[in-house]
Amino acid sequence: MKPTLLTLITLFLLFNPLINNAQTTKKIKINGLVLFAQKPIDVANVTLHRSQDSALVKMAITNKQGEFEFLDIETATYFIQIQAIGFTKYSSAIIPIKENKTILVLPPINLFAATKELGNVTVTSKKVFIEQKLDRTIVNVEALATNAGLTAFEVLEKAPGVVVDKDGNISLKGKQGILILVDGRPTYLSGQDLTNMLANMPSSNLEQLEIMTNPPAKYDASGNAGVINIRTKKTKTVGFNGSASVNYSQGVYPKTNQSLNLNYRVNKINFFANGGYSYRENFQEINIDRNFVDMQTSKLLSSVKQLADVNKLFKNYSYKLGVDYFLDKKTTMGIVLNGFDTKGNEFINNSAVIRNDVGAIVTKNRANNENIFNNMNFSANINFRKIVDTIGSEITADIDYITYQSNNKQNLNNYFFDAYDNKKNPDEFMRGTLPADIHIYSAKVDYATTLKKQIKLEAGIKTSYVTTDNNALYEIIQNGNWQTDLGKSNHFKYEENINAAYINLNKKLNKKWVVQTGLRVENTNANGKQLNTGQTFNKNYTQLFPTLYIGYSANDKNQFAVSYGKRIERPDYDDLNPFYFFLDKYTYQVGNPYLQPQFTHSLELSYSFAGFFTATINYAKTNNIIQDLFDQIDSTNTTFIRKENIATQKNMGIALSANIPVTKWWKTNLYTNAFNNQYKGLINGKEEQIEGATITANFSNQFSFKKGWAAELSANYQSKAVGGTMVANPMGAVHIALSKQILKDKGNIKLSVRDLFLTQNFTGYSKYQNIDIVINQRRDSRVINLGFTYRFSKGKPMQQQKRNGGASSEQNRVKTNQ
Questions:
Q1: Would you say 651 and 677 are in contact if contact means Cβ atoms under 8 Å apart?
Q2: Where is the domain boundary, 88, 114, 140?
Q3: Helix (H) and strand (E) counts for the chain?
Q4: Domain count of the chain?
Q5: Distances (CA, A) of 795 to 84, 143, 363
Q6: CA distance 409 to 582
Q7: What does the pLDDT look like over 264-323, one tens digit per residue?
Q8: I need a surface site. Which of 419, 487, 527, 780 has the fewest CB within 10 A?
Q9: In which domain, by residue range, is 104 found?
Q10: Triad 729, 735, 737: Cα angle to 5°
Q11: What CATH number corresponds to the domain at position 750?
């Protein structure tokens, strides 16, 4: 079942005719020189466009002397555009190419600085918080002062259209199932593990969030609601440069995070590294009220009132090391190593009061539970990039290896009393060891070129192979000795191989119309085995995933776009594993090896005006949607959660966003999304229909004052929301911040308060059939933060690529319970 390179090499060779055919014979050579203050600009992007329709003809990159050239150019009229980091974009006048010339030498082109230089520090202009693009929404993290000192998880909570539920599950525009990428590469995590990784990634390491609700065929088809790509900072200067940040936060408990980013470019080699440490101490108060009702008569059988005080402490160390080697102007090879190590403890003091049908206390349960976390992640990426001709055709390749290991433990101690606090039943003690060992191998090759008639082609292939090994061992004390609990212990192994190929075509029909279409095919082969019981399952299926985008520009200010895409959401590896994870004696979660993938068809229509206002209408239908389902065992007053393919979901919504420059010193960003979720299907063998409308809103105000002062006021709100069988009540938060440039603008100090009025608390309920549960949850959400960032640079701007690794959706499905 392990993939071989034979398929990759064979399909890769199929692209060679495209590479050869993309080149044609021309006649004239163009030479040019790019300068700034009479000094040459290295690694500037120079593009040659046909003046008739602005079509891209060729691309070039300036050398150390600032020189560039275009070979074999046909006689026609053209114009040149130049982009270089730290400089304003340049567009030339019309350049006629005549037949009586063999070489055209252009006058020197002088660029203007887009930033002002203070010593060795480059101070860039302030970015807007939200940018709308044709196929994505971009969130510039540092544009909001209140993002200082936060984590990537908390920044995501404030992003437009993004909602995080009480368990840390991320949804976008009312749909769950997000593919999370970091610098275009998958995280290979999901559930609590993904939450922990994002919660230990400082915002000072982040540059942008790219939110794509209908990603093109190039991306893995995984992700029911789309893709969120977290772009981290990577310094782009020749020489030595970097940044350091320190943040201290205080809620009920303290939190800190520190990070260091370094970059060094010399000759053909570029080294980069960053590291971080974070300490986070948090609390949760969880109140759960449950009524156990007879399914047939609806008569109350018993009730349980539960209160859990949870204290969490996490320490996280993360690192990233990499090197890019520039073999020549057109060829780059690189290696990137990533990793993190998380250790932590979770202490739960739990009390549960069980009453009979007339309200009399039957049992009081007190529990002291401890969860010990020890998780390690390591990934290695080898990448290659080759520009194969003068029009910018390129081949990229990636090989990835990821390993995720955890050795988590649980200790559960239960004590039982009657209504008068007298000892009622013998104490119960249980302990669990929950190791997870996951290995992921991935390889991909991508090719991009421009064909005749300016058709842009992208194509690629990918293969991945995943193995997971979970051996959950639970023990209980019997007769004074620890004995294996065979009913709860389980050893589960899982293997999965996914092979994929895609093609994507983009054509600008004229000045007003552009069309892009793509097709991705994915073949999945999976098998799992429970070693304790010998039970096995196998899944083999092949699916096509088409995409279509049509853009129309009525004029410079009014643009329209329509897009369609089909996507898949496969079960998380751990959700397929039928082992138990306990909150207490009466509440636990269990996996389901019979889960099937869910498929989503989505359609969007968007309108953009003058780059500051965007409206989007969306519709999506998901079959076999995977949702948490509550179930009960009335005889033991036990409630458990399992994943099920419960229903078909229909999601309809409208989103509005605007970037409004109120004054020169005041800018406002507004976003609101209204959507309706409908779930219809069989739940526990009975037809159910659950439906509800929701409104989410985000707004932020940025204020820029003299002498480097800035401030921000922002807020987010969610009305009542339906997510499967759970209904969440309204919630929201207000955030404020103040910042100041110091140390000759080399440093920045920020003071912020998150959730100023302590309103970001979850309350909700689930009521259907014999299920009647009400949940109230409060956490350490009001936090004051003081942060300091210092940037240093000894060098000049350069251009540097970000690697998009070969592994895509697999890592996002790694989940070991914590």
A1: yes
A2: 114
A3: 4, 50
A4: 2
A5: 15, 25, 71
A6: 11
A7: 988 889 999 988 898 999 999 999 999 999 888 889 999 999 999 999 999 989 899 999
A8: 487
A9: 5-13+28-114
A10: 175
A11: 2.40.170.20
